[in-house]
Model the fold of this input.
Amino acid sequence: MTQKIVPVIMAGGKGTRLWPLSRAAAPKQFIRFIGDKTLFQETLLRVSDPTLYEAPVILTNEEFRFLVAEQARELDIGLAAILLEPVARNTAAAVAAAATLVRDRFDEDTVMHVLGSDYEIVADDTYFECVRIAAATAAQGKLVTFGIQPTEPATGYGYIEGGKTLPTGARTVARFVEKPPLAKAEDMVATGGFYWNSGMFMFSVSGVLAEMRSYAAPVLKAAADAIAKGVRDLDFIRLDKAAFATSPNISIDYAVMEKTSNAAVVPSPFKWSDLGSWDSVWKSGSRDENGNLAAGNTTVVNTKNSLIMTHGVHLAVQGMDDIAVIASEDAVYVGRLQDSQDVGNLVKMLAAAPTTSQLTETHPTSYRPWGGYTSVLNGDRFQVKRIFVTPGKKLSLQKHHHRSEHWIVVKGTAEVTIGENVQMLRENESVYIPLGEVHRLANPGKIMLELIEVQTGSYLGEDDIIRIVDEFGRS
Done:
């Protein structure tokens, strides 16, 4: 039993509306847009007060499991559990699985705070006062959502109309409104009493499970079975695929919140953005006297009201107005800020073409549980990568059927196993791994190990890895 709130963080989304920085294998919640922390890490920090919260439960998918673990480790924040969803089934099934887990670990009176991992929120006193009101309301059996005070007649959000005021300061929910046309949004904002639907919730385990039994029984059964038949794998809990897949694909809003008579909304005037498009990133950031938001290596001249951001090449922008110029390591997007809601359609076009589909899936830099690698250069029968290995980590003991490798250490110390031989390499030292030879790379040092890897051979795909021993359960 606990008197604290159990945070449940949804971190499995694969949105690509912030392309080219956000991609299917590295979506926006795990990207550093401005500053040194990702949106997922900022979410972890908002629920890190041990006097208010228990350790968080994370829901994500197989592909992001090591990103979640590593980004939590960087902040030294412990996680209660990482639930791996085997198939995408929207937020109703995720909430049901989390509620089942929390009930089993604590009890039915426990209050859950369900959050997305991809919002930008200013967690000031106003924010935590809203959390306090929501927790008090949830403890009385209400299913609580946070309604953001509108700052404009936005058409990209759903709205909630507040009803009568409850003793806690929350309001009953009069109705939910789908994403409206502009004229209707203007009327609602002018009338008052309408709020943006933030997608954040607070409810007791017993409260949400009771409403799911009434309105979403198939979802609850699928999630409960998936938990019961789940398998622990290192720090992860793999939900049973066959059971979880039987759940209807439906959001918690449609499945429960819009049907229950027990819903409440906390009017929330804190700063919030779902960062769903480049113009929302521009609006949420700190702009200069010309209305520009620039991040990374940029030079901006005679330009106004624009977003200039780079994670790669230096961007020089001159004589422009109301544009977004976004550069990743391997792609650049240029478009008007007012059109940035349509980036998703552009990404669909790129994904449909064989020559550009990879640009929507992965970055040149890929992260692994031991560190990661950056693709530097690809050619006919050769490939150059930058490998980085976290202190104390090691790659799997492996071999390749179609390629040999040369390793040159540029930073740190490498422990290299080749066959029966183990040797230490330091900066500016190199080694050759012949085709078919069993080998392993480890970082025994205290600083990040960086090396350049040159692969040569007839086939250089990532699936030419035969893992013999792997501490991350991939062999």
Observations:
- The longest strand covers residues 194-204.
- The chain has a mean pLDDT of 92.
- The chain has three domains: 5-273, 281-348, 365-469.
- The CA atoms of residues 91 and 251 lie 5 Å apart.
